[in-house]
Amino acid sequence: MHTPTLLILAAGMGSRYGGDKQIDGFGPNMETILEYSVFDAIRSGFGKVVFIVRQEILEEAKAIFVPKFGDKIQVEFVIQSLESMVPEAYRQPERTKPYGTAHALLCAKDVIKEPFAVINADDFYGVEAFRILAAFLSKEVTPQLHCMVGYALENVLSDYGTVSRGVCESSPEGFLTGMIERTAISRKEGGIFHEEGSDKIEISPENPVSMNCWGFHPAVFEQTEKLWIPFLEENQDNLKSEFYIPKVVNSLIQEDIARIKILEGGKIWFGVTYSQDREHVVKALRKLHAAGTYPEKLW
Q1: Which stretch is the leader sequence (predicted)?
Q2: Does residue 28 carry a pLDDT above 80?
Q3: Which of 48-62, 101-115, 177-191, 259-273 shows the highest mean pLDDT?
Q4: How far is CA 54 from CA 62, 78, 144, 212, 237, in A?
């Protein structure tokens, strides 16, 4: 069996952060957050890493990452653009926002033929997440069984504004039964709430959420392609619409095509949504280095 691949989504615009956080340095030696994910993936048994990037940062990303770990793991880059996989009839010349995580997934279908994990470039997931993903992708995954690493909602918020999270519903056996993408979650008034327009919904702090940390059999690409053109048709006049991985996952569950196992590997997480999050991330990484979780220098 092939060793699993790590797919890193690094094409986001970082509009709330105010820059390209995918290539910004946070570690003691200016390591990017995604370098910790690659380091953890290598020591967990992954054999290839695929970066989804925008054309504007491609050369800089190659210059930063290939010399560091290109001799330790196979590295490939894929472009996600506003034209990628988009038939000419559906292109939106005035659009500036990327099409979202499931579109990024689709962009990688020609370079991934083996079981693979999907993560965000700007999220720190912890080595335990990669170890449990590697074990699942090496032994359990099938076209009818995928996985996600679950994180408790209270541990994945920002102190500086709202965040988007895939709020999960699960069966007693630990399988995902549904997910709703909540795009405006924050802690306030002694609780955690999603507020959008006149809607205000309280969510349990222990509720598992998706941090876009998935494990898939490559069969997932077929369902993603099936949903892609209908999504474009439905959103021809919406320049901010996004095609999310939870949409694909929900369809797999609802159509009884596959099950999604929730793995309990989400022990530690931090990330950068806002520029103010930077200081917390820098301190957290220094603490992990000091504790010996990571060597003085990653590479």
Answers
A1: none
A2: yes
A3: 101-115
A4: 12, 8, 32, 19, 23
| Residue 15 tokens, joined | 């509009």
pLDDT in the model for residue 1: 58
Q: Give the whole-angstrom CA distance, residue 233 versus residue 86.
A: 11
Q: Supply the pTM of this predicted model.
A: 0.91
* Closest listed residue to residue 131, CA positions, set 268, 285, 27, 1: 268
8 Å CB contact between 269 and 151: yes
Report how far residue 159's alpha carbon sits from residue 192's, in angstroms, rounded to the nearest whole number.
Answer: 12
All structural domains of the chain, each given as residue ranges with its CATH number in brackets, are 5-290 (3.90.550.10)
Q: What is the share, in percent, of the chain residues with pLDDT greater than 70?
A: 96
Q: What is the dihedral of CA 122, 294, 66, 33, to 10 degrees?
A: 10
3-state secondary structure the chain: CCCCEEEEEECCCCCCCCCCCCCCCCCCCCCCHHHHHHHHHHHHCCCEEEEEECHHHHHHHHHHHHHHHCCCCEEEEEECCCCCCCCHHHCCCCCCCCCCHHHHHHHCCCCCCCCEEEEECCEECCHHHHHHHHHHHHHCCECCEEEEEEEEHHHCCCCCCCEEEEEEEECCCCEEEEEEEEEEEEEECCEEEEEECCEEEECCCCCEEEEEEEEECCCHHHHHHHHHHHHHHHCCCCCCCCCCHHHHHHHHHHCCCCEEEEECCCCCCEECCCCCHHHHHHHHHHHHHHCCCCCCCCC
